[in-house]
Design goal:
With about 375 residues, this protein is mainly alpha-helical. It contains 13 helices and two strands, in the order αααααβαααααααβα. The protein starts with a helix and ends with a helix. Keywords: Membrane, Transmembrane, Transmembrane helix.
Length: about 375
C-alpha cells in the first residue's frame, strides 16, 4: 500500500507530466512545419523532457547500480538518436549524404572532449583531483578510437569507390565490426569485468554505490524506465520537429550543413551531459566516464550498422569519411585522451585541455 501511494504521488510530479506533454506535442506536430511560436513551445517542452530524462535515469541507476545505470541511458538515447538520423536521411536526399557522419562525429567529440572534459574539470575542482579506474576507462576509450577510425577515417582513403565512402562489402565489414566490438564491450562492462567500471574510492576501498539513500522500489524503477523511454522519445522526436527550423537558420546564417549534425548531437546528448556532470559533482567520476565513453561507443556501434541496413533502400550517397581537419582533431583527441587516462586521476588541467579541443571543433565546424 505504501509503495502504491508513493507511485501515485510520483505520477503527478513534473518529471512525469513533461514527458507525457512532450508526447502530446509530438503527436500534434510530427510531419508538419509548425510556425515559430510552436517551435519555441516545443523547444521549452524539449528542455523539460531532458531534465525529466535525467531524473528517471538516475532513479534507474540507483536501483540497478553501475555500470548498468549508465548503460541504460546511453543505449536508450543512442537507439532513438539512430532512428532520428535514419529518418532525416530518408527525408533529406543527397543533401543528407554526410548527416550520419556529421552527427556521429559530433557525438564522439562532444562525449570524449565535452562531457569527459567538463566532468573531469568539475570533479577535480570540487575534490582536488578526479579519480577513475584506468583499466575500464582505457578499454572503453581504446574501443571508441578503434570504432571511429574503422568507420570514419578509412573511408577517406579507400580507392574502390570515389569520394569519402565505402563500397558495399567495406560497409558491411564496418557495420559488423562496429556491432561485434560494441557487444563484446557491453559483455565486458556488465559481466566479465564489471569491477573495472565501478566508481573508485580515494582510500582504495571497495567501490560504493549511493549508500546515503535507500534504493527505489521495483515498481518505482519500472515506472521510471517507462518515463525515461517516453522522455527520450519526446526529446528526439521534438528535435526532429524543430530540425527544419535549425536547418533554415543554419542556411540563412551561411554556415556549413555539418552544423546541423552538431546541433542535433548537442540536443540529443543533453540528458547524458547533465547526468554525467551531476555524478562528477558527487565524486563519482567513473560513472561520468561510463556515460561519456559509453555514449560515444553506442553512437558508432549502433549508428553504422543501422545506416548500413538503411542504405539498402536509400538511393542517395552515404559519405562516412572525415575531412583532414576533423581527422587531425580526432588524432589529437586520441593522444590527449590516452595521456589523461593512464594515471587514473585528473587535475583541472586535463579537463580544460579536453574542453579546448571541443571548442576548436565547434569553431572549425562553423568556420572550416
Amino acid at each position: 500500500m505504501i509503495a502504491t501511494a508513493r507511485l501515485r504521488r510520483t505520477a503527478v510530479q513534473w518529471t512525469t507530466l513533461l514527458p507525457v506533454l512532450g508526447i502530446i506535442a509530438l503527436a500534434f506536430t510530427w510531419g508538419t512545419y509548425p510556425p515559430g511560436w510552436v517551435v519555441a513551445v516545443c523547444a521549452v517542452i524539449l528542455a523539460g523532457a531532458v531534465l525529466s530524462a535525467v531524473h528517471h535515469a538516475e532513479v534507474i541507476a540507483h536501483k540497478v547500480g553501475e555500470p548498468f545505470g549508465s548503460l541504460v541511458l546511453a543505449v536508450a538515447v543512442t537507439i532513438i538518436e539512430v532512428a532520428l538520423i535514419v529518418t532525416l536521411m530518408a527525408d533529406g536526399g543527397d543533401k543528407s549524404a554526410g548527416l550520419a557522419r556529421d552527427t556521429v562525429f559530433a557525438a564522439v567529440m562532444i562525449t570524449t572532449n565535452g562531457i569527459l572534459g567538463l566532468c573531469l574539470l568539475v570533479g577535480a575542482l570540487r575534490h582536488r583531483t578526479a579519480v577513475f579506474n584506468q583499466s575500464g576507462t582505457g578499454a572503453a576509450f581504446g574501443t571508441v578510437a578503434t570504432l571511429a577510425t574503422l568507420s570514419m577515417v578509412l573511408p577517406t582513403f579507400t580507392t574502390t569507390t570515389p569520394g569519402p565512402s565505402f563500397s558495399g562489402s567495406q560497409l558491411v565489414f564496418a557495420a559488423v565490426a562496429s556491432a561485434v566490438l560494441y557487444l563484446i564491450f557491453v559483455m565486458t562492462q556488465t559481466v566479465r569485468h564489471r569491477d573495472y567500471f565501478l566508481p573508485v574510492r580515494r582510500d582504495g576501498g571497495a567501490p560504493s554505490q549511493d549508500s546515503h539513500a535507500d534504493p527505489p522500489t521495483r515498481q518505482a524503477a519500472l515506472f521510471s524506465l517507462v518515463m525515461l523511454a517516453l522522455a527520450l522519445v519526446s526529446v528526439v522526436g521534438l528535435a526532429k520537429v524543430i530540425s527544419p527550423t535549425i536547418e533554415k537558420g543554419v542556411a540563412s546564417a551561411g554556415l556549413p550543413n555539418a552544423v546541423v549534425g552538431v546541433v542535433i548531437a548537442l540536443l540529443v546528448l543533453l540528458p547524458e551531459t547533465i547526468a554525467a556532470v551531476r555524478a562528477a559533482g558527487r565524486d563519482q567520476v567513473q560513472t561520468s566516464v561510463n556515460l561519456a565513453l559509453g555514449s560515444a561507443m553506442a553512437s558508432i556501434g549502433l549508428t553504422i550498422p543501422a545506416v548500413a541496413v538503411a542504405s539498402i533502400w536509400m538511393t542517395g550517397p552515404l559519405n562516412l569519411g572525415l575531412g583532414p581537419t576533423h581527422m587531425v582533431l580526432l588524432a589529437l583527441t586520441v593522444i590527449v585522451g590516452t595521456l589523461t587516462i593512464i594515471p587514473g586521476r585528473s587535475t583541472p588541467l586535463q579537463g580544460a585541455v579536453h574542453l579546448a579541443i571541443l571548442a576548436a571543433y565547434l569553431e572549425l565546424s562553423v568556420t572550416p
